Amino acid sequence: FDPRHYLGTHCFGFPRTGPHRLRFLLESVKDLRETLKRKGSTLVVRKGKPEDVVCDLIIQLGSVSTVAFHEEVREILRW
């Protein structure tokens, strides 16, 4: 969970993730973790800036050969 997603936006100060979306995300992550656990796997959940958390996780695991990610698309509103 990236703390920056819970701050206000640069345009209007509205939160990027409001309480209803946060509840949905938490319930979804919990459900995914439980599903993976039933299948003999697990889900690693961390809080922090992804660029820091992923680096720390790679160091912790030690045997990572590939990391895949996507960049968030940011829509620019022009009036």
Automatic annotation (TrEMBL):
Q: Which InterPro entries match?
A: Crypto/Photolyase_N_sf, Cryptochrome/DNA_photolyase_1, DNA_photolyase_N, Rossmann-like_a/b/a_fold
Q: Which GO terms describe its molecular function?
A: damaged DNA binding; deoxyribodipyrimidine photo-lyase activity; FAD binding
Instruction: Show the SUPFAM superfamilies listed in the entry.
Output: Cryptochrome/photolyase, N-terminal domain (SSF52425)
Query: Ranges for the Photolyase/cryptochrome alpha/beta domain?
Result: 1-79
GO biological process assignments = photoreactive repair
Is Protease a UniProt keyword of this protein? no
What UniProt keywords are attached to this protein's entry? Chromophore
Write down the superkingdom of origin: Eukaryota
**The protein's name in its UniProt record:** CRYD protein
Q: What is the lineage of its organism?
A: Eukaryota, Metazoa, Chordata, Craniata, Vertebrata
